[in-house]
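CORE FACILITY INTAKE
Project code: CF-77B
Contact: R.S. (postdoc)
Sample description: multi-component assembly, two entities in total
Requested service: structural model of the whole complex
Turnaround: standard
Below are the sequence entries exactly as provided by the requester. Do not edit them.
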Amino acid sequence: MINTESVWVVIPAYNEAQVIVAVVRPLCEAGYKVVVVDDCSTDSTQLELSQTNAFVIAHPINLGQGAALQTGITFALRQKAAYIVTFDGDGQHLLSEIPKLLKPLFEHRCEVALGSRFMPGGRATNIPTARKILLALATVYTRIFTGLNVTDTHNGFRALTAQAAQKLTITQNRMAHATQILAEIKNHKLRYMEVPVEIIYTDYSSSKGQKVTGAFNIIWESITEYLGL
Amino acid sequence: MNMIQIILVGASVCSLIIYLSYFRSVLRDRLIISILFALTVFFILVPDSTTTIAHILGVGRGADLLIYISVTTFVFLFVLAYSRISKLERSQTDLARALALLQAKDQTRP
C-alpha cells in the first residue's frame, strides 16, 4: 500500500467554486495531503475550500496556473513532501489513477511520471474536436521546442519525487508552463516516463480550457523566455 | 531592394538575437543606446554626411538611412523595455508568492 502521508497533491485553482469540493474532498479522504493554490479567484472557491481539510494558499493577485503550481510545489516541499502530484482543480483528472503515476516513482524507475491521454491505454473522454486539434499542434510544437518525445505535452496530471520537484523552477506563470516543465526535465536530465491516464471532459471543464489563441501565446512566451526577455 | 539591404537586415536581426541570448548586460545595453544617441546627434548636426554614407552603403537617400537607423533603434529600445517589464513581472510573482506562503503559515492548520 502507498504511504499516502508523504504524497502531496498540488491543485492550482481559479474560479472552481462549482466543483472544487467534489475534487478535493475525496483526495483528502483517500489520505493524501492536499494543497490548493487559489489564484485570486473572484468566486467563492476559497469559501468552498474551507469545508475541506485541504491546505489553502491564496495568491494576493492573479498570477496564472504555472505560478500557482510553483507556489503549491514550493509549499509542499517545505512541508517535507516525498512525492508531489500535480492535479487539475476542474474535475478532469481521476483520483483513482494517482497510484498509477506514483508506482514508477516508488519503484525508482523514473523521477517524473507524466500522464498521457494520447498513448495506448490513455483516454480523452468527450474531448471536443477543436481541443483535440489544438493539443495535437501543441504537442508537435513542444516536441520540436524541447526535443522530448512526449505524446501528451499539456497534461496537468504528473507525479514527481521531491528531489525532481526541487530542481524544477517554473517561471512561466501562465499557460506556457507546461512546455517549460518539459524543458526543465530535459535541462536537468530528469528521468521521466509517460503513464496512460484518462482525462474526462465535461461541459464545465471544456468551457474553462484553453482557446485556440492560447497556442499562439504559448509559442510567443516560450520564444521570449528562450531569448532571455 | 538591393543586396546590401537584405544583408544588413539579416545581419541586424541575427545580431539582435545573438546579443539578447548571450551578451546582454546593463552596461552593454547602455553603451548601445549611447552610441545610437550619439549617431542621432551626429546626423542632426552634420546632415549632409547622411547622403555620403547612404551612397556608400547603397541606400538611395540620406533620409532613408536615417529611417533605417531609427527603426533599428526603436526596435532595440522596445525590446529592452519589454525585457524590463518581464523582469518586473518575475519580481512581482516572487513577491506575491512570498506573501501567499507567509499568510499560509499563519492559518490554523486543519
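Facility notes:
- Residues 129-146 of chain A form the longest helix (18 residues).
- The mean pLDDT of chain A is 89.
Invoice: internal transfer
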